[in-house]
Design a protein that fits this description.
The protein is mainly β. The protein contains 2 helices and 31 strands. The strands form 6 sheets. Strands 2, 3, 6, 7, 8, 11, 12, 13, 14, 15 and 17 form an 11-stranded mixed β-sheet that branches. A hairpin with a 2-residue loop joins strand 29 and strand 30. The longest helix is centred in the N-terminal third of the chain and has 25 residues. The protein is globular and about 60 Å long.
């Protein structure tokens, strides 16, 4: 039945109706697209990539209960975290985002594994969101190994605990405190049966931070848990939940590894070589140390960090011509504004005063920007 002339739609009316329908359809598709923007992963070891350079993994291995994560463009959040495990044992999972390799799954375009002695800086940034109705830690993992392996478990794991909720503690036992990256940390050391674990626990929750991964890697070297010819295989940021965990989120993550820069004595056109002279004046209960670094390589060093470990019983009370990270145990001395440039064949000197108990001894090893130095 054809419509009467009074009710028949005009060409202009048909066009308007069509445009209205198209706008409505576009709005519907936009809403659907926004609603489906996050990728949900519930498979125990399911993973995906973000930003074309990082891997996000569900990584549920300690329980059969369901865990799901919603992966965003910049991180992920835990949307379902069923079940619980005893707090005096291992956590139930480690949902995380990483740069590098994890059990043969390597992030796109990663430089890792890379030998520690060739890394000048490894800047990273992380932002977390926390919940209170769960037992968990927010952990940043740094994995080191004597070989450039991309599978299995590495020899040494460095854990940075940005936050912990509940009656949980790191592997091993507390071994003191340290200043790393300008922050104070409680330090734990131990072995979980598969690898050594060095943990740095924040005294209060840190929600976001930008730092240099190499500051922590050098701590492992100075404590004898790694060497400069070992490899950085991956850096990972996520959560270890024991109970619940829904709502925990990594809001953003970034990781870069820089090699062969002018601040690295082993950079292009240079040879990896440095020498340290450590002269002391010792008296009952105290001492001073004058440290001279010689750049014996063929290229300049722009910006230096000298890592070493003070023998037991020694503590630094003040210093000159250097900024110090740590006052006992593992210490890192870095340049001040006027002495950051060390030409090839040139020297830089700094010193400090400290207290001492027992038999006095000198540090046995020094590393400059991650490269081992000879001692004279």
């Amino acid at each position: 039945m054809r419509p009467s002339p009074h009710h028949a739609p005009s060409a202009r009316g048909l066009l308007g109706a069509l445009l209205t329908s198209l706008v409505s359809l576009a709005a519907l598709l936009t809403t659907a697209s926004a609603a489906q923007a996050d990728t949900t992963i519930c498979q125990p070891f399911g993973s995906t990539t973000i930003q074309g350079r990082y891997v996000v993994q569900n990584n549920r291995w300690g329980t059969n209960a369901t865990q799901c994560i919603a992966v965003t463009d910049s991180g992920f959040r835990i949307t379902q975290a069923d079940g619980s495990v005893p707090t005096n044992g291992a956590p139930k999972s480690y949902p995380s985002v990483y740069n590098g390799c994890h059990y043969t799954n390597c992030s796109p375009g990663t430089k890792l594994p890379v030998q520690l002695g060739t890394i000048s800086t490894a800047p990273s940034s992380i932002s977390y969101s926390y919940v209170n109705d769960a037992t968990y830690d927010a952990a940043y993992d740094i994995w080191l190994d004597p070989t450039p392996r991309t599978d299995g478990v590495n020899r040494t794991e460095i854990m940075i605990w940005f936050n912990k909720v509940g009656s949980i503690q790191p592997i091993g036992s507390p071994v003191g405190t340290a200043t790393v990256g300008g922050r104070e940390w409680q330090v734990w050391s131990g072995n979980n049966g598969s690898n050594d674990v060095l943990s740095f626990v924040a005294p209060s929750a840190i929600t976001s931070w930008t730092f240099d991964v190499m500051d922590f890697a050098r701590q492992a070297v100075s404590r004898g848990l790694a060497q400069n010819n070992w490899y950085l295989t991956s850096v990972q940021a996520g959560f270890e939940p024991w109970q619940n965990g829904a709502g925990l989120a990594v809001n953003s993550f970034s990781s870069t590894v820089n090699t062969g820069s002018s601040g690295d004595p082993g950079g292009p056109g240079g040879s990896t070589a440095c020498k340290v002279a450590y002269a002391t004046n010792v008296w009952q209960g105290g001492f001073t140390a004058d440290v001279t670094i010689t750049n014996t390589g063929s290229s300049p060093v722009s910006g230096w960090k000298l890592a070493f470990t003070l023998p037991s019983g020694q503590r630094i009370t003040n210093a000159w011509n250097a900024n110090l990270s740590g006052s006992s145990g593992a210490v890192t001395a870095s340049n001040v504004a006027h002495n950051g440039e060390v030409p090839a064949g040139g020297q830089v000197a700094f010193g400090f005063q400290g207290t001492s108990g027992g038999t006095f001894a000198k540090p046995s090893d020094f590393s400059l920007n991650g490269t081992a130095c000879t001692t004279v």
